[in-house]
Amino acid sequence: MPLNQTAREAERERIARHVLDLVKERGSEIPWTVAMAESGLTRARFEALFADYDDMFDAVAQTWLAPQLQVMEEVLATTLPPPRKMYEFFRRRFVISQERFRADPQFFSILCEMGAANFERVRSYVDLADHYLCELIAEAQADGYFAGLEIDEALSMINQMVTVYTMPDALIYLGDKLSEKKLARIVDTMFIGLSGEAGADASGVNTLKVAS
Amino acid sequence: MPLNQTAREAERERIARHVLDLVKERGSEIPWTVAMAESGLTRARFEALFADYDDMFDAVAQTWLAPQLQVMEEVLATTLPPPRKMYEFFRRRFVISQERFRADPQFFSILCEMGAANFERVRSYVDLADHYLCELIAEAQADGYFAGLEIDEALSMINQMVTVYTMPDALIYLGDKLSEKKLARIVDTMFIGLSGEAGADASGVNTLKVAS
Protein backbone atom coordinates (compact mmCIF):
# COMPACT_ATOMS: atom_id res chain seq x y z
CA MET A 1 0.00 0.00 0.00
CA PRO A 2 1.57 3.31 -1.01
CA LEU A 3 2.03 5.85 1.78
CA ASN A 4 0.46 9.28 1.54
CA GLN A 5 2.85 12.23 1.37
CA THR A 6 2.78 13.06 5.08
CA ALA A 7 3.21 9.46 6.18
CA ARG A 8 5.98 9.02 3.64
CA GLU A 9 7.86 12.10 4.93
CA ALA A 10 7.49 10.91 8.51
CA GLU A 11 8.75 7.48 7.55
CA ARG A 12 11.73 8.94 5.67
CA GLU A 13 12.61 10.99 8.71
CA ARG A 14 12.27 7.98 11.01
CA ILE A 15 14.70 6.01 8.85
CA ALA A 16 17.02 9.02 8.55
CA ARG A 17 17.19 9.25 12.36
CA HIS A 18 17.90 5.55 12.53
CA VAL A 19 20.73 5.95 9.98
CA LEU A 20 22.17 8.79 12.11
CA ASP A 21 22.03 6.52 15.16
CA LEU A 22 23.87 3.82 13.21
CA VAL A 23 26.56 6.29 12.11
CA LYS A 24 27.02 7.29 15.74
CA GLU A 25 27.09 3.69 16.96
CA ARG A 26 29.44 2.30 14.33
CA GLY A 27 31.61 5.35 13.74
CA SER A 28 31.33 5.21 9.98
CA GLU A 29 29.13 6.14 7.06
CA ILE A 30 26.34 3.60 6.57
CA PRO A 31 26.12 2.05 3.10
CA TRP A 32 22.82 1.73 1.31
CA THR A 33 22.51 -2.05 1.76
CA VAL A 34 23.31 -1.85 5.49
CA ALA A 35 20.77 0.93 5.98
CA MET A 36 18.21 -1.22 4.19
CA ALA A 37 19.00 -4.35 6.21
CA GLU A 38 18.94 -2.43 9.50
CA SER A 39 15.74 -0.58 8.69
CA GLY A 40 13.56 -3.61 9.35
CA LEU A 41 11.71 -2.82 6.13
CA THR A 42 11.39 -5.00 3.10
CA ARG A 43 13.54 -4.08 0.16
CA ALA A 44 10.48 -2.99 -1.82
CA ARG A 45 9.25 -0.80 1.01
CA PHE A 46 12.71 0.71 1.52
CA GLU A 47 13.10 1.45 -2.18
CA ALA A 48 9.67 3.03 -2.23
CA LEU A 49 10.94 5.46 0.42
CA PHE A 50 14.36 6.19 -1.07
CA ALA A 51 15.21 6.10 -4.77
CA ASP A 52 18.91 5.56 -4.09
CA TYR A 53 21.75 6.37 -1.67
CA ASP A 54 21.74 10.05 -2.63
CA ASP A 55 18.06 10.29 -1.88
CA MET A 56 18.58 8.65 1.50
CA PHE A 57 21.50 11.02 2.17
CA ASP A 58 19.18 13.94 1.42
CA ALA A 59 16.78 12.74 4.09
CA VAL A 60 19.64 12.32 6.59
CA ALA A 61 21.02 15.80 5.80
CA GLN A 62 17.56 17.33 6.07
CA THR A 63 17.04 15.75 9.48
CA TRP A 64 20.50 16.74 10.74
CA LEU A 65 20.19 20.32 9.48
CA ALA A 66 16.60 20.93 10.57
CA PRO A 67 17.60 22.79 13.77
CA GLN A 68 19.86 25.12 11.75
CA LEU A 69 17.07 25.87 9.30
CA GLN A 70 14.74 26.58 12.16
CA VAL A 71 17.02 29.09 13.90
CA MET A 72 17.79 30.85 10.62
CA GLU A 73 14.07 31.32 10.04
CA GLU A 74 13.51 32.48 13.61
CA VAL A 75 16.24 35.09 13.28
CA LEU A 76 14.95 36.30 9.93
CA ALA A 77 11.55 36.87 11.49
CA THR A 78 12.91 39.15 14.24
CA THR A 79 13.13 42.94 14.03
CA LEU A 80 16.55 43.27 15.68
CA PRO A 81 18.95 45.98 14.47
CA PRO A 82 21.10 44.67 11.58
CA PRO A 83 24.33 43.98 13.53
CA ARG A 84 22.49 42.01 16.20
CA LYS A 85 20.39 40.19 13.67
CA MET A 86 23.40 39.07 11.64
CA TYR A 87 25.22 38.04 14.80
CA GLU A 88 22.28 35.90 15.88
CA PHE A 89 22.04 34.45 12.37
CA PHE A 90 25.55 33.05 12.72
CA ARG A 91 25.66 32.56 16.48
CA ARG A 92 22.64 30.30 16.84
CA ARG A 93 23.87 27.91 14.18
CA PHE A 94 27.36 27.97 15.66
CA VAL A 95 25.99 27.08 19.10
CA ILE A 96 24.12 24.09 17.68
CA SER A 97 27.30 22.82 16.01
CA GLN A 98 29.42 23.50 19.06
CA GLU A 99 27.04 21.58 21.33
CA ARG A 100 26.98 18.67 18.93
CA PHE A 101 30.74 18.69 18.61
CA ARG A 102 31.24 18.74 22.38
CA ALA A 103 28.66 16.01 22.95
CA ASP A 104 30.41 13.57 20.62
CA PRO A 105 33.47 14.80 18.68
CA GLN A 106 33.94 11.54 16.79
CA PHE A 107 30.34 11.35 15.59
CA PHE A 108 30.56 15.02 14.65
CA SER A 109 33.73 14.43 12.62
CA ILE A 110 32.18 11.58 10.68
CA LEU A 111 29.17 13.74 9.82
CA CYS A 112 31.53 16.49 8.62
CA GLU A 113 33.29 13.98 6.40
CA MET A 114 29.97 12.70 5.08
CA GLY A 115 28.89 16.27 4.34
CA ALA A 116 32.16 17.01 2.53
CA ALA A 117 32.00 13.79 0.53
CA ASN A 118 28.40 14.48 -0.49
CA PHE A 119 28.68 18.22 -0.82
CA GLU A 120 26.25 18.41 -3.73
CA ARG A 121 23.57 17.01 -1.43
CA VAL A 122 24.01 19.78 1.16
CA ARG A 123 24.38 22.55 -1.40
CA SER A 124 20.71 23.48 -1.15
CA TYR A 125 21.23 24.19 2.56
CA VAL A 126 24.24 26.41 1.76
CA ASP A 127 22.25 28.17 -0.97
CA LEU A 128 19.37 28.81 1.41
CA ALA A 129 21.73 30.23 4.05
CA ASP A 130 23.15 32.53 1.35
CA HIS A 131 19.67 33.58 0.33
CA TYR A 132 18.81 34.51 3.91
CA LEU A 133 22.11 36.30 4.38
CA CYS A 134 21.35 38.38 1.28
CA GLU A 135 18.14 39.49 2.96
CA LEU A 136 20.08 40.53 6.05
CA ILE A 137 22.60 42.42 3.91
CA ALA A 138 19.81 44.27 2.09
CA GLU A 139 18.30 45.29 5.45
CA ALA A 140 21.72 46.43 6.67
CA GLN A 141 22.34 48.41 3.48
CA ALA A 142 18.99 50.14 3.93
CA ASP A 143 20.45 51.37 7.23
CA GLY A 144 23.64 52.56 5.52
CA TYR A 145 25.94 49.63 6.23
CA PHE A 146 28.17 47.96 3.61
CA ALA A 147 27.87 51.06 1.44
CA GLY A 148 29.13 50.89 -2.12
CA LEU A 149 29.06 47.10 -2.31
CA GLU A 150 26.79 44.96 -4.45
CA ILE A 151 24.85 42.48 -2.34
CA ASP A 152 26.78 39.60 -3.92
CA GLU A 153 30.11 41.24 -3.10
CA ALA A 154 29.08 41.79 0.51
CA LEU A 155 27.77 38.22 0.67
CA SER A 156 31.07 36.78 -0.48
CA MET A 157 33.18 38.94 1.86
CA ILE A 158 30.98 38.22 4.87
CA ASN A 159 30.92 34.50 4.19
CA GLN A 160 34.71 34.50 3.92
CA MET A 161 35.23 36.41 7.16
CA VAL A 162 32.94 34.19 9.22
CA THR A 163 33.92 30.91 7.58
CA VAL A 164 35.34 29.45 10.79
CA TYR A 165 31.93 29.90 12.45
CA THR A 166 29.87 28.38 9.64
CA MET A 167 32.10 25.54 8.47
CA PRO A 168 31.54 22.77 11.01
CA ASP A 169 34.99 21.24 10.44
CA ALA A 170 36.53 24.36 11.98
CA LEU A 171 35.35 23.16 15.41
CA ILE A 172 37.51 20.08 14.98
CA TYR A 173 40.75 21.94 14.49
CA LEU A 174 40.04 25.23 16.30
CA GLY A 175 37.87 24.01 19.18
CA ASP A 176 37.83 26.51 22.04
CA LYS A 177 39.54 29.16 19.92
CA LEU A 178 36.05 29.72 18.54
CA SER A 179 33.77 31.69 20.82
CA GLU A 180 30.56 33.67 20.67
CA LYS A 181 32.43 36.72 21.90
CA LYS A 182 34.90 36.57 19.01
CA LEU A 183 32.06 36.04 16.56
CA ALA A 184 30.36 39.18 17.92
CA ARG A 185 33.62 41.08 17.38
CA ILE A 186 33.92 39.83 13.83
CA VAL A 187 30.33 40.82 13.02
CA ASP A 188 30.83 44.31 14.46
CA THR A 189 34.17 44.62 12.67
CA MET A 190 32.37 43.93 9.42
CA PHE A 191 29.57 46.40 10.17
CA ILE A 192 32.10 49.09 11.06
CA GLY A 193 34.71 48.45 8.41
CA LEU A 194 33.25 46.70 5.38
CA SER A 195 32.33 49.00 2.49
CA GLY A 196 33.18 49.63 -1.13
CA GLU A 197 36.05 51.80 0.04
CA ALA A 198 37.79 49.10 2.05
CA GLY A 199 40.71 47.60 0.17
CA ALA A 200 42.31 50.77 -1.15
CA ASP A 201 44.63 51.29 1.81
CA ALA A 202 45.70 47.67 2.07
CA SER A 203 46.36 47.19 -1.62
CA GLY A 204 47.86 50.65 -1.97
CA VAL A 205 45.77 51.70 -4.97
CA ASN A 206 45.25 55.09 -3.32
CA THR A 207 48.96 55.94 -3.12
CA LEU A 208 52.07 55.79 -5.24
CA LYS A 209 53.75 53.45 -2.79
CA VAL A 210 54.59 50.02 -4.09
CA ALA A 211 55.10 46.95 -2.04
CA SER A 212 58.61 45.98 -2.96
CA MET B 1 81.75 8.60 5.86
CA PRO B 2 79.46 10.95 7.81
CA LEU B 3 78.34 14.11 5.97
CA ASN B 4 79.10 17.51 7.41
CA GLN B 5 76.11 19.62 8.42
CA THR B 6 75.86 21.62 5.18
CA ALA B 7 76.19 18.60 2.94
CA ARG B 8 73.69 16.73 5.09
CA GLU B 9 71.13 19.56 4.80
CA ALA B 10 71.62 19.71 1.04
CA GLU B 11 71.20 15.95 0.75
CA ARG B 12 68.05 16.02 2.90
CA GLU B 13 66.62 18.70 0.66
CA ARG B 14 67.54 16.78 -2.47
CA ILE B 15 65.70 13.71 -1.20
CA ALA B 16 62.77 15.86 -0.01
CA ARG B 17 62.41 17.29 -3.54
CA HIS B 18 62.54 13.78 -4.94
CA VAL B 19 59.80 12.68 -2.55
CA LEU B 20 57.67 15.66 -3.66
CA ASP B 21 58.21 14.61 -7.29
CA LEU B 22 57.10 11.10 -6.42
CA VAL B 23 53.97 12.38 -4.66
CA LYS B 24 53.15 14.41 -7.78
CA GLU B 25 53.85 11.50 -10.12
CA ARG B 26 51.96 8.83 -8.20
CA GLY B 27 49.21 10.94 -6.73
CA SER B 28 49.64 9.63 -3.21
CA GLU B 29 51.66 10.03 -0.04
CA ILE B 30 54.99 8.17 -0.31
CA PRO B 31 55.67 5.65 2.46
CA TRP B 32 59.02 5.52 4.19
CA THR B 33 60.15 2.27 2.54
CA VAL B 34 59.20 3.48 -0.95
CA ALA B 35 61.04 6.76 -0.41
CA MET B 36 64.06 4.78 0.69
CA ALA B 37 63.93 2.38 -2.27
CA GLU B 38 63.44 5.24 -4.75
CA SER B 39 66.19 7.39 -3.25
CA GLY B 40 68.96 5.29 -4.77
CA LEU B 41 70.68 5.39 -1.40
CA THR B 42 71.59 2.46 0.77
CA ARG B 43 69.41 1.86 3.76
CA ALA B 44 72.23 2.89 6.10
CA ARG B 45 72.82 6.11 4.21
CA PHE B 46 69.07 6.90 4.08
CA GLU B 47 68.67 6.25 7.79
CA ALA B 48 71.67 8.46 8.49
CA LEU B 49 69.78 11.29 6.73
CA PHE B 50 66.33 10.69 8.25
CA ALA B 51 65.68 9.22 11.67
CA ASP B 52 62.15 8.11 10.69
CA TYR B 53 59.13 9.01 8.57
CA ASP B 54 58.35 12.09 10.66
CA ASP B 55 61.86 13.37 10.20
CA MET B 56 61.59 12.87 6.43
CA PHE B 57 58.19 14.59 6.45
CA ASP B 58 59.82 17.55 8.23
CA ALA B 59 62.34 17.87 5.41
CA VAL B 60 59.54 17.66 2.80
CA ALA B 61 57.46 20.28 4.61
CA GLN B 62 60.47 22.55 5.01
CA THR B 63 61.20 22.34 1.29
CA TRP B 64 57.58 22.88 0.31
CA LEU B 65 57.10 25.82 2.68
CA ALA B 66 60.44 27.55 1.98
CA PRO B 67 58.91 30.09 -0.46
CA GLN B 68 56.26 31.03 2.12
CA LEU B 69 58.89 31.55 4.79
CA GLN B 70 60.90 33.69 2.41
CA VAL B 71 58.04 36.04 1.50
CA MET B 72 57.03 36.40 5.15
CA GLU B 73 60.56 37.47 6.00
CA GLU B 74 60.70 39.84 3.03
CA VAL B 75 57.47 41.52 4.08
CA LEU B 76 58.57 41.81 7.71
CA ALA B 77 61.70 43.63 6.54
CA THR B 78 59.75 46.31 4.65
CA THR B 79 58.69 49.66 6.09
CA LEU B 80 55.21 49.72 4.52
CA PRO B 81 52.31 51.27 6.46
CA PRO B 82 50.63 48.64 8.67
CA PRO B 83 47.57 47.91 6.46
CA ARG B 84 49.71 47.39 3.35
CA LYS B 85 52.24 45.38 5.22
CA MET B 86 49.66 43.02 6.66
CA TYR B 87 47.99 42.68 3.29
CA GLU B 88 51.30 41.71 1.67
CA PHE B 89 51.99 39.32 4.52
CA PHE B 90 48.88 37.35 3.59
CA ARG B 91 48.74 38.11 -0.13
CA ARG B 92 52.16 36.83 -1.08
CA ARG B 93 51.61 33.49 0.57
CA PHE B 94 48.15 33.25 -0.92
CA VAL B 95 49.56 33.89 -4.41
CA ILE B 96 52.11 31.10 -3.98
CA SER B 97 49.39 28.67 -2.94
CA GLN B 98 47.05 29.82 -5.69
CA GLU B 99 49.70 29.33 -8.38
CA ARG B 100 50.52 25.89 -7.05
CA PHE B 101 46.85 24.96 -6.89
CA ARG B 102 46.21 26.13 -10.46
CA ALA B 103 49.31 24.39 -11.80
CA ASP B 104 48.26 21.00 -10.45
CA PRO B 105 45.08 20.80 -8.36
CA GLN B 106 45.43 17.09 -7.67
CA PHE B 107 49.02 17.34 -6.44
CA PHE B 108 48.01 20.33 -4.36
CA SER B 109 45.14 18.41 -2.78
CA ILE B 110 47.36 15.52 -1.81
CA LEU B 111 49.83 17.88 -0.17
CA CYS B 112 46.96 19.48 1.77
CA GLU B 113 45.89 16.05 2.97
CA MET B 114 49.45 15.19 3.93
CA GLY B 115 49.73 18.46 5.83
CA ALA B 116 46.46 17.82 7.65
CA ALA B 117 47.41 14.23 8.49
CA ASN B 118 50.80 15.34 9.81
CA PHE B 119 49.68 18.59 11.36
CA GLU B 120 52.12 18.35 14.26
CA ARG B 121 54.96 18.44 11.72
CA VAL B 122 53.82 21.73 10.17
CA ARG B 123 52.93 23.34 13.49
CA SER B 124 56.30 25.10 13.69
CA TYR B 125 55.47 26.85 10.41
CA VAL B 126 52.09 27.93 11.79
CA ASP B 127 53.73 29.10 15.02
CA LEU B 128 56.29 31.13 13.09
CA ALA B 129 53.58 32.78 10.97
CA ASP B 130 51.77 33.67 14.24
CA HIS B 131 54.97 35.07 15.67
CA TYR B 132 55.46 37.32 12.64
CA LEU B 133 51.82 38.36 12.66
CA CYS B 134 52.20 39.42 16.31
CA GLU B 135 55.02 41.73 15.20
CA LEU B 136 52.76 43.25 12.54
CA ILE B 137 49.98 43.70 15.09
CA ALA B 138 52.35 45.43 17.52
CA GLU B 139 53.45 47.81 14.75
CA ALA B 140 49.81 48.50 13.85
CA GLN B 141 48.89 49.11 17.49
CA ALA B 142 51.74 51.61 17.76
CA ASP B 143 49.90 53.49 14.98
CA GLY B 144 46.60 53.31 16.87
CA TYR B 145 45.00 50.33 15.14
CA PHE B 146 43.32 47.42 16.98
CA ALA B 147 42.99 49.62 20.06
CA GLY B 148 41.94 48.02 23.31
CA LEU B 149 42.87 44.49 22.26
CA GLU B 150 45.64 42.34 23.66
CA ILE B 151 48.02 41.20 20.91
CA ASP B 152 46.85 37.62 21.39
CA GLU B 153 43.22 38.63 21.03
CA ALA B 154 43.95 40.57 17.85
CA LEU B 155 46.01 37.64 16.57
CA SER B 156 43.17 35.19 17.05
CA MET B 157 40.54 37.46 15.47
CA ILE B 158 42.72 38.29 12.47
CA ASN B 159 43.65 34.66 11.90
CA GLN B 160 39.97 33.72 12.02
CA MET B 161 38.89 36.41 9.56
CA VAL B 162 41.56 35.58 6.98
CA THR B 163 41.41 31.81 7.41
CA VAL B 164 40.23 31.20 3.85
CA TYR B 165 43.38 32.94 2.57
CA THR B 166 45.84 31.09 4.79
CA MET B 167 44.35 27.59 4.88
CA PRO B 168 45.44 26.02 1.58
CA ASP B 169 42.43 23.65 1.48
CA ALA B 170 40.18 26.67 0.99
CA LEU B 171 41.47 26.96 -2.58
CA ILE B 172 40.09 23.52 -3.29
CA TYR B 173 36.53 24.34 -2.33
CA LEU B 174 36.41 28.11 -2.93
CA GLY B 175 38.70 28.44 -5.98
CA ASP B 176 38.06 31.67 -7.83
CA LYS B 177 35.86 33.00 -5.04
CA LEU B 178 39.17 33.86 -3.40
CA SER B 179 40.87 36.93 -4.82
CA GLU B 180 43.56 39.42 -3.89
CA LYS B 181 41.00 42.21 -4.13
CA LYS B 182 38.74 40.55 -1.56
CA LEU B 183 41.71 39.89 0.69
CA ALA B 184 42.60 43.60 0.51
CA ARG B 185 39.03 44.44 1.52
CA ILE B 186 39.16 42.04 4.44
CA VAL B 187 42.45 43.49 5.67
CA ASP B 188 41.12 47.06 5.45
CA THR B 189 37.87 46.00 7.10
CA MET B 190 39.91 44.70 10.03
CA PHE B 191 42.04 47.83 10.24
CA ILE B 192 38.94 50.04 10.18
CA GLY B 193 36.66 47.97 12.36
CA LEU B 194 38.58 45.71 14.71
CA SER B 195 39.07 47.07 18.22
CA GLY B 196 38.23 46.27 21.80
CA GLU B 197 34.92 48.01 21.30
CA ALA B 198 33.76 45.78 18.46
CA GLY B 199 31.32 43.15 19.62
CA ALA B 200 29.10 45.25 21.84
CA ASP B 201 26.61 46.18 19.12
CA ALA B 202 26.38 42.72 17.65
CA SER B 203 25.99 40.93 20.95
CA GLY B 204 23.75 43.63 22.37
CA VAL B 205 25.66 44.05 25.62
CA ASN B 206 25.33 47.81 25.23
CA THR B 207 21.54 47.81 25.17
CA LEU B 208 18.64 46.27 27.02
CA LYS B 209 17.39 44.50 23.91
CA VAL B 210 17.42 40.76 23.99
CA ALA B 211 17.54 38.48 21.04
CA SER B 212 14.42 36.46 21.46
Automatic annotation (TrEMBL), chains A, B:
Q: Which residues form the Tetracyclin repressor-like C-terminal domain?
A: 82-187
Fetch the Pfam families from UniProt. Answer: TetR_C_27
Please indicate which superkingdom the organism of origin belongs to. Answer: Bacteria
Q: Which residues cross the membrane?
A: none
Please name the InterPro entries in this protein's record. Homeodomain-like_sf, TetR_C_27
Output this protein's name: Tetracyclin repressor-like C-terminal domain-containing protein
